[in-house]
Amino acid sequence: EGNLGLYKTRGTVIALSTQSFLVKDNTGIILVDRPTTWLPDVERGTLLEIEGQTTIQKKAVVFDKEAKYVHLGLNDNIKETEQVLTAELANEIIKAEKVQPELVTLTGTLTVSGNYFNVSLKENNETTISISNPLKVVELKAANAQELELKGYIISVTGNKILNLLLSEFKVVPAPKPEPEPEPEPEPEVPDT
Questions:
Q1: In this structure, are strands 102-113 and 116-121 parallel, antiparallel, or unpaired?
Q2: 3-state class of 141 per DSSP?
Q3: What mean pLDDT is predicted for residues 93-109?
Q4: Are 145 and 117 in contact (CB under 8 A)?
């Protein structure tokens, strides 16, 4: 969660996209914004010391693009608790004054339009989940119009109906197999008379 203004901390990278990554420190989870030309030099589990200005953007505490960080090693002991993103939880996050990134799972249908990747929650079509700068663009484009199971962090809110998701993983939900046609019942035999 961090403090606003100049902030210095140590934490572990727990998720990343093409333009940002999340660091978990002893105060919670902080989004680190990167320049659009950023080539990832961190991975999940990288232990960092990071210092820079933090502000609130789209209801989330964010280190700005000028933040500096130093690699301290690797942390392979990342403990995470996930929860299902229900319609109720989505509404709570949208109404909150500040967003604390949370690891969620959800199921919904993916719509791809150019470089925008949106998912409609299966149980709540009023809320859109926007996948923020995903690493697996080609795979997501191939999954357009399909139902997906997703896991990632809600990192911010845009407007009053869009939750921004930093995607950790996803899989296509297999289409249900059609029920086989029932066998016709044999006609009763009529005795000869």
A1: antiparallel
A2: helix
A3: 92
A4: no
